[in-house]
């Protein structure tokens, strides 16, 4: 259901009007209205249907309070009210039905708040103050270019390359150093480590979302996500390993949509199998942070995933992050790796085992626990690059290699792979 009541400037309209069914509620409301500096005469006797009749022949107020107590079909009547309300009207409903589903449906229809009878002065005062704040908030964000939502999916080319370590670190950096509200979605439903890295219990948020996609809305997001700090929230799971993942991916799409409304940034820790099974998850992703290592297997899979992204997620910019790089001890040199994947590595993160152990002991992200480490400094650069690429439509992370389009040359990946296929192991190589 689309929200019919759109926030906007109030212009020269009356600041407030109310249509209330009973005198006792009016007696509580009028003193608060006087306190707010508004006219108590704008508190009318009568419920939602009276409001529809009145507003069909007069201008809507900036803030409208309507009583649903005598309405047999509140949602249908609210839609009728939307037809006679001008854009910019903030509607507060009151009623005596204590039902969560009704509350969610009303919010989905565009109602700003729903208050339960009997009313109290403090309850009314808080609701009206929050309603007033609506008018300044949209104007502040309309001209703020920094508020464009940015989403990155962090994908590891192989298990153990450190994709989750990087995902949690950049999410923490977005929320602290960049002061962006950030959602971290850990899609490894059975073995995810996002919550563990942040020293949190994962909760049932992601499991509930998968089981009941229809429940996903703003209120669900607010209640189901686990807060790591004031600006960082995570949704993850530790599903029983005897329970297979049964989903068509619709829950993940709905979660991404809600994140776009509620957060400045989304970080998706996405296992390779989720990438392949649910390619539509990358539709609105700005940057795919592809975490790899300098090994033959990772080089092969980097090539395959880059090719897959070009066909299945053409609008997402790939960013190559080579992690756990051992000085002078890599299976493949950087030059050979770049020649094989036909583009430059964007960032190289050195291997620092003591720093990783320190983060685990402290129950903190790698970047938080090791602020002075060289590897953490590179993670800062990764976070900056993602924000830059997502904020600037013209920015590109593509860095083509000078090796041209051929994989043949100093490092021939195809030849190396073919050498692996000895007669006695050919079957195993084909299955890989």
Automatic annotation (TrEMBL):
UniProt keyword list: ATP-binding, Nucleotide-binding
UniProt-listed GO biological process terms: negative regulation of cell division
GO molecular function terms listed in the Swiss-Prot or TrEMBL record: ATP binding; ATP hydrolysis activity
Record InterPro entries: CheY-like_superfamily, P-loop_NTPase, ParA/MinD_ATPase
GO CC terms of this entry: cytoplasmic side of plasma membrane; cytosol
Record protein name field: Pilus assembly protein CpaE
Provenance organism: Alteraurantiacibacter aestuarii
């Amino acid at each position: 259901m689309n929200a019919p009541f759109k926030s906007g400037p109030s212009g020269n309209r009356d600041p407030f009007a109310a249509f209330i069914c009973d005198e006792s509620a009016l007696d509580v409301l009028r003193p608060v209205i006087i306190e707010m500096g508004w006219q108590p005469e704008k508190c009318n006797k009568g419920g939602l249907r009276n409001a529809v009749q009145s507003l069909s022949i007069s201008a809507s107020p900036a803030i409208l309070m309507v009583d649903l107590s005598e309405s047999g079909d509140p949602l249908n009547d609210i839609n009728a009210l939307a037809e006679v309300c001008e854009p910019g009207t903030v509607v507060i409903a009151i009623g005596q039905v204590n039902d969560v589903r009704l509350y969610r449906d009303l919010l989905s229809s565009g109602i700003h708040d729903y208050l339960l009878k009997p009313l109290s002065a403090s309850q009314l005062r808080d609701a009206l103050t929050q309603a007033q704040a609506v008018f300044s908030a949209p104007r502040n964000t309309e001209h703020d270019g920094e508020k464009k939502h940015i989403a990155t999916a962090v994908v590891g080319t192989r298990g153990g390359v450190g994709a989750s370590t990087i995902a949690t670190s950049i999410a923490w950096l977005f929320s602290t150093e960049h002061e962006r509200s950030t959602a971290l979605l850990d899609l490894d439903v059975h073995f995810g480590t996002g919550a563990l890295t942040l020293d949190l219990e994962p909760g049932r948020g992601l499991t509930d979302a998968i089981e009941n996609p229809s429940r996903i809305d703003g209120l669900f997001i607010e209640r189901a996500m686990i807060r790591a700090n004031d600006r960082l929230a995570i949704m993850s799971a530790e599903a029983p390993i005897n329970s297979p993942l049964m989903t068509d991916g619709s829950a993940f799409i709905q979660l991404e949509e809600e994140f776009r409304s509620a957060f400045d940034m989304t970080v998706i820790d996405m296992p390779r199998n989720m990438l392949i099974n649910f390619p539509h998850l990358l539709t609105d992703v700005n940057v795919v942070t592809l975490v790899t290592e300098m090994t033959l297997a990772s080089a092969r899979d980097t090539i395959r995933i880059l090719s897959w992204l070009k066909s299945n997620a053409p609008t997402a910019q790939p960013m190559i992050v080579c992690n756990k790089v051992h000085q002078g001890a890599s299976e493949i040199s950087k030059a050979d790796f770049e020649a094989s994947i036909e583009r430059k590595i964007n960032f190289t993160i050195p291997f620092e085992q003591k720093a990783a152990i320190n983060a685990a002991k402290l129950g903190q992200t790698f970047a938080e626990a090791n602020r002075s480490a060289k590897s953490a400094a590179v993670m800062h650069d990764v976070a900056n690059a993602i924000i830059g690429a997502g904020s600037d439509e013209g920015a590109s992370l593509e860095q083509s290699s000078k090796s041209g389009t051929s994989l043949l040359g100093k490092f021939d990946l195809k030849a190396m792979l073919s050498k692996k296929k000895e007669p006695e192991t050919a079957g195993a190589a084909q299955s890989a």
